[in-house]
Amino acid sequence: MDIGFEQGPIRPPSEAKSLLIRATRNCPWNKCRFCNTYADTKFAIRNSGEVKNDIYRAAKIARDLAEYSREEGEEGVITARIVQAVFDRQELYNEAYRAIALWLYYGGEQVFIQDADSLTMKTVDMIAILRCLQETFPAVKRITTYCRSKTAARKPLAELELLREAGLSRIHVGMETGSDTLLKFINKGVTALEHIEGGQKIKAAGISLSEYVMPGLGGQTWSHEHAVETARVINSINPDFLRLRSLHITAFTPLAKMTQKGTFMPLGEEDVLREIREFILELEGISTTIVSDHMFNLLEELEGTLPADKTKLLATIDRYFSLSEEDRRIFRRGRRRGVYRSMDELAAESN
Hints:
Blueprint: E1 19-22, E2 24-25, E3 44-45, H1 48-71, H2 80-88, H3 95-105, E4 110-114, H4 123-136, E5 142-146, H5 149-154, H6 157-166, E6 168-176, H7 180-185, H8 192-204, E7 208-213, H9 223-237, E8 241-244, H10 254-261, H11 269-282, E9 289-291, E10 304-305, H12 310-322, H13 325-336, H14 343-350
Parallel strand pairs: 1-4, 4-5, 5-6, 6-7, 7-8, 8-9
Antiparallel strand pairs: 2-3, 9-10
């Protein structure tokens, strides 16, 4: 099959079951010192008509797969057997067919609009895309996208409200830190005040907000400031979700070169966890859900909703440090190898 549609390189882990529709290409800033996702690329805003054509192609693929399912006696439903057949028959079904098969298998209810800052697109064009998605796929219940704080801060509130009315459910924002010192150091291209203004505006528009922070980003020099100032900004915004993304220094990034030269001194995993504890202690007066859904986080089970679960979150970290030094070493090694997803799994092995 030669029908396809364009997809970008990344999406949040929470959008693993989403259809990926690319409205913009790459990142309009693309200067953060810790990131090389869009290295050597140029930012571009796609024509809304081109994006809508991708949506129509996705719908054609969905119809093809439903017909194949009926031929196989599955009554048009994309079952595990149909998905496996689509993946096995790669001479017939390309990457786009495999993506749609998985999406439909998981319910076909979520869409993520790519790439790094899709709201740089004119609001009228994004509304056209949102409406096209809902008209073409009536079963869709959630549409989300990435957006930079600076972009949200500049976007008129009335336009964000129109996007929400057109079907935009959630915006993911890579805050990384609330420290102006650290924002400048990592060349984020945004200030703490812009983080607050952008986040508050998204919330005021009635759009669900998921903020990402990066424990360990301050290294040994700014760990305390990173924890305290990021908590201050989060307290000012009260996002719906706060997602932890512990620093992973990627090769060939400016931060990797600075680490090699000794101008940036990263924290060890346990010190990152101590920083997270200090950060959580500083969170006050908010009703945010904390999520630790990334492989780079040492404690994946560090999840809960404030304020009710604050004690539980701190106790989870304390439980780790109550382990013997040997058990902590075993857990860290197992976590990095994908053996453990929680401390309970380590405890089960010991029994």
